[in-house]
Description:
By secondary structure, the protein is mainly beta. It has helices at 6-15, 72-76; strands at 18-19, 28-29, 31-36, 39-44, 49-56, 62-64, 84-86, 92-93, 97-100, 103-106, 115-116, 129-134, 141-148, 159-168, 172-181, 186-187, 191-193, 195-196, 210-213, 215-221, 227-233, 245-246, 259-264, 273-280, 285-291, 295-299, 307-308, 314-315, 321-326, 341-342, 347-357.
Amino acid sequence: MSKLTPLLCFMIVAFGVVLVDGTEPKTDVGFYEIKKGDLSLKLSNWGASIISLHFPDRNGKLTDIALGYDSIKDYMNDTTYFGATVGRVANRIAGAKFTLNGTEYKLKANEKNNILHGGAKGFGDLVWKVKKHKKDGKRPSITFYYRSYDGEEGFPGDLDTTVTFTILDNNQLSVVMKGKALNKATPVNLAQHTYWNLGGHTSGDILSNEIQIFGSQITAVDKDLIPTGKLDSVKGTPYDLLQPTVLKSKFYGLPDGYDVNYALDGGTGKKLKPAATVVEKKSGIKMELLTNAPGLQFYTGSNIKDLKGKGGFTYKVHAGLALETQGFPDAVNHPNFPSQIVPVGKTYKHTMLFKFSNKA
């Protein structure tokens, strides 16, 4: 191992940086911050992840509304995808395989016979490079970059990927994900996997949250959460969240909570459309989410069970909710779903806009 200078030793201690893959460091992994006005965001280049988001409640108390861990080591051992950028293809692909241009691609299954969130070493479990970082000022932002290689987890072609987080005026957070196919057509579907709790990450479950999802249909699934190819209306079901709804009022029909993809109203295209709104009455914090993606996976954390999180707090079932704007799951095997295939030389672009306020 090469010797560390005193300055580098200080940086490692000061910023909690750990060295990856044993004794000879390949890339430094650490925490980064961007902040503007009332909004501050802590991130890591491990998985291009959101670590925390602080925003004041209606009484002016700064509140961390994102679930997470204190150390990079905890993220490396995480199985919940706390805060991560997931891909190359988020969500599930049936049988861990698909056919593209006459070639069958066999992927590395990591959930029974299927692949979830890009495989055992998806984008949320990799080290990204910090391309740009401006901590504060008029447009504080950070851009993470990752070059995915041909054959990684079984996917075809090299892919240049960036994720940019930018704090805008009026307590808005922009997240822009891009993926350019360099030498082969490939599916790309990136998603942001933060678990939100607008009462604060230590406030307990999210069942009293009021939620509205702008999707009149869901992708019907089998027992393994693999789409059948059919779209079902939400009318008359617990999935009908078209009007603001307190979550616990719908759980009567869903003992394990929600884990479903909504087909968002407004279809596909480049323009942003409403995806979801969440309100926590006690804190007064409201979060609005807009996106250009066709789908939204809504998950209420049924697999969160006694996880030790930030500050030693123990997260229990339904401690947070995930709103993952995305392409439809298993779209590579359903021609009737919006395509996720990116041709050579073309760029995939997925945009999210979060709007925060505290007078709800």
